[in-house]
Amino acid sequence: MTNRLATWLNLVFASIIVIGVFVQAYLIASYAMGAGESALDAHGFIGGLVIHASELLVFLTAIVAFWRMWRWIAVNFGLFVLGTVQIFLLPPDDDPGSPWVHGLHGLFALFVLVYAASIAKRDLRLLRMHPMATAPPPG
Q1: pTM exceeds 0.85 for this model
Q2: DSSP characters for 44-82?
Q3: Per-domain residue ranges for the chain?
Q4: Distance of CA 110 to the CA centre of its chain
Q5: pLDDT tens digits for 99-113?
Q6: How far apart are CA 93 and CA 73, in angstroms?
Q7: Model pLDDT, residue 137
Q8: By three-state DSSP, how is residue 27 classified?
Q9: Residue 49's pLDDT band (cuts 50, 70, 90)
């Protein structure tokens, strides 16, 4: 049985990631079209703080929501790992390296989007299937 509140939180954080990736695409496109450094700064803030923190929170809420369902917890942890890899595909400021490799940063953002959307869809299905599911009482 799953913890209903933690499942809802898992759904909320996965949804924040989905929406955030669309915001990220808009911000980086705005920067590429000449919006200036503020668009790039906002892209970095949303990606680094909001989305990546939400990826971690998806994993942490999964531990509570799906305790002893190790496969589901591992799936949620995979989103955090993929998001971390995606961030590390950014070129460092002092040595931009290969743009072909760093272009994977944008591609992996799409993978993060689909991954988070699949987690959110699963959470919605669980919440609808077991509308009164709660964690067992303590003790």
Answers
A1: yes
A2: HHIIIIIIHHHHHHHHHHHHHHTTT-HHHHHHHHHHHHH
A3: 4-129
A4: 11
A5: 888 889 999 999 999
A6: 35
A7: 46
A8: helix
A9: very high
